[in-house]
Write a structure and sequence with these properties.
The chain has two domains: 11-27 and 244-439, Alpha-beta prism (UDP-n-acetylglucosamine1-carboxyvinyl-transferase, Chain), CATH 3.65.10; 29-232, Enolpyruvate transferase domain (UDP-n-acetylglucosamine1-carboxyvinyl-transferase, Chain, Alpha-beta prism). By secondary structure, the protein is an alpha/beta fold. It is globular. Helix 2 (55-66) runs parallel beside helix 3 and helix 4 packs parallel to helix 6 (178-188). Helices cover 30% and strands 26% of the residues. The structure holds shikimate-3-phosphate. Shikimate-3-phosphate binds at residues 30, 33, 104, 177-179, 182, 203-204, 327-328, 351.
């Protein structure tokens, strides 16, 4: 049963208390998906250390297993092995490929499968994923000759993919989305000639880094790495991947540690890829007290430990230019804004409306229920912070990042809260509630 599926008893979230100690957040979700996917189409064995053992990567693994890829059990702490079948080795599945709640699984899978000539695939997901736009992948893929069909003229899952020999071409992506870009890079691996993907702004570059490490012929140029060219023909070779901790999961502790009275937290082994560190820039703008310790490089990704202590925070403003580097951190930043005196402004965030939920609407609704003063705009929100929030009956509305953001808000409120559908956290951070209980003092 999906963690976002069935109703459960609301979780009690007591107000007050402090946070201290060390925490290791689970593996990066984006890197985890990619290590499974690239391992599957490589030749030989890929070993993955630190793979995120959460529902989203499990969806990717289940789809790959349904196409004949042997993947060892994904359990906490396990080193996972993927027996690669090579670029042409994926079998036509006899079942519908269930991507669960995971947009990354569905979008990357579309790119991977569109070029599997002569094979047919059906992809589906949960109620949230069935509402999310897929044309942003299907349309540029169709410029390569792909055939993707679905409801709303191919925009909505369930989707059917008829694999074909794809054409190499030059494609501009309609949004700065790493999911769209990565789908096209995967499709390009077996096109009949080079493909250049041009992004409107740089999105996270884990695919580029990892595809290169697996042996793909991939070149990045242009300002800010926005032109990515893949030349087909190179076989991918299995690798040893080490997945760093997810900065998008660390974000909850960074904000909680900055706000909770007396907090002092160290978050170990956090991925610090510059295409993901927008949250650190905004927290710096807010004058948060964060130190990056022990910076190092692990398997091609920058990593460090982050120490955060409570400090008086200033309001912030950010817009479209930073959005790709903190897109998943907007919900927790909206919580941060409620607790610093003055007006904070988030703009250029309309992508938030097509995430697991409409995160602008859901965060505004839930925080307002606690008494927050928020104006919602089409592309963001204005938050007048500094007034106390009251504990109340909250609801994640099935969204993992909303669940964890509200947990932080509830701790800082006066009076206890309850959180319906708190189990959604397991989509990206299965041990979140245990970590919260342990760090709390
Ligand atoms: C992801 C990219 C982002 C992000 C998502 C994971 C990825 O989505 O929100 O959680 O792994 O490529 P977009 O690329 O659609 O912005």
């Amino acid at each position: 049963m999906s963690a976002t599926g069935s109703p459960s008893t609301p979780r009690v979230l007591p107000a007050g208390g402090s946070l201290s100690g060390r925490v290791t957040v689970p593996g990066d979700k984006s890197i985890s998906h990619r290590s499974l996917l690239f391992g599957a189409i490589a030749e030989g064995t890929t070993t993955i250390e630190g793979l995120l053992p959460a529902e989203d990567p499990l969806s990717t693994a289940a789809c790959l297993r349904a196409m004949g890829v042997a993947i060892s059990p994904i359990t906490p702490g396990a080193t996972v092995t993927v027996q690669g079948v090579g670029l042409e080795g994926l079998q036509e599945p006899s079942v519908i490929l269930d991507c669960g709640n995971s947009g990354t699984s569905m979008r990357l899978m579309l790119g991977l499968l569109a070029g599997r000539s002569g094979r047919h695939f059906i992809l589906d997901g949960d109620a949230s994923l069935r509402r999310r736009p897929m044309r942003r992948v299907g349309q540029p893929l169709s410029a390569m000759g792909a055939e993707v069909r679905g409801r709303d003229s191919g925009n909505l899952a369930p989707l059917a993919v008829q694999g074909r020999q794809l054409k190499g071409t030059v494609i501009g992506t309609p949004v700065a989305s790493a999911q769209v870009k990565s789908a096209l890079l995967l499709a390009a691996l077996t096109a009949d000639g080079p493909t250049t993907v041009i992004e409107p702004a740089q999105s996270r570059d884990h695919s580029e880094r990892m595809l290169r490490a697996f042996g793909a012929d991939l070149e990045v140029d242009g300002e800010m790495g926005r032109h990515i060219t893949v030349r087909p023909g190179a076989n991918l070779r299995g690798q040893s991947v080490v997945v760093p901790g997810d900065i998008s999961s660390a974000a909850f502790w960074l904000v909680a540690g900055s706000l909770v009275p007396g907090a002092d937290l160290t978050i170990e082994n956090v991925g610090l890829n510059p295409t993901r560190t927008g949250i650190l820039e905004v927290l710096e703008q807010m004058q948060a007290r964060i130190e990056v310790l022990n910076r190092r490089d692990v398997a091609g990704e920058p990593v460090g430990d982050l120490r955060v202590r409570q400090a008086p925070l200033q309001p912030f403003a950010f817009g479209e230019s930073i959005m790709p580097r903190l897109v998943d951190e907007v919900p927790i930043l909206s919580v941060a804004a409620c607790f610093c005196a003055g007006e904070s402004r988030i703009s250029g965030a309309s992508e938030l409306r097509v995430k697991e939920t409409d995160r602008l609407a859901v965060m505004a609704r839930q925080l307002r229920a606690m008494g927050a003063d928020i104006d919602e705009h089409e592309d963001g929100m204005t938050i007048r912070g500094g007034r106390p929030l009251q504990g109340t009956a909250l609801d994640s509305e099935t969204d993992h990042r909303v669940a964890m953001s509200l947990a932080v808000a509830a701790m800082l409120a006066s009076g206890d809260s309850t959180l319906a559908r708190s189990e959604a956290a397991a989509v990206s951070y299965p041990t979140f509630w245990d970590d919260l209980a342990r760090l709390r003092s």
